[in-house]
User: What shape does this take?
Amino acid sequence: MNVLTAILLALHLIGLALVVGTFIVQMRAKSGFRTDLLLAGAIVQLVTGGAMFGLLAGETWFDHLKYGVHGAIGVVVLGAAIGAFVAQRRGARVQPWFHAAGGLGLINLLVAVLWRQYT
Ligand code: HEM
Assistant: This one.
């Protein structure tokens, strides 16, 4: 891994903290959701993840199936985070979007870490 990929991975872990951390802190909330933090994290994940994908895709060890699934779930997380942000601005129900984004973010973390262990 070169230094650029390492920096991107560090930023990717900060984005992960924003998505999953915000979700865990507000998991039982009924209102006042920090959809701005959730959305910022989801955007960071797509940008840093996409860049790492581009840099690493040619490596022999790179598991395209794993990171294809991982990237696709990340895109859905971003869609749900946008849904949460927009719903909040319109005064609509935020909770389902918030839980979808946070829950899938958590699942995506598990996909990244556990898939590496068992393949
Ligand atoms: C909420 C969304 C996301 C979460 C929680 C997440 C979480 C993680 C975690 C924990 C890792 C480190 C474990 C590992 O190296 O396998 C990782 C690595 C990685 N992620 Fe994500 N990710 C998300 C979104 C994305 C997206 C959207 C993409 C691509 C478009 C992506 C591409 C990658 C790549 C390529 C790596 C491998 C980095 C390396 O091995 O150096 N991720 N992700």
In short: The radius of gyration is 15 Å. The chain has one domain: 3-117. The mean pLDDT is 96. Helices lie at 3-25, 35-56, 64-90, 95-117.
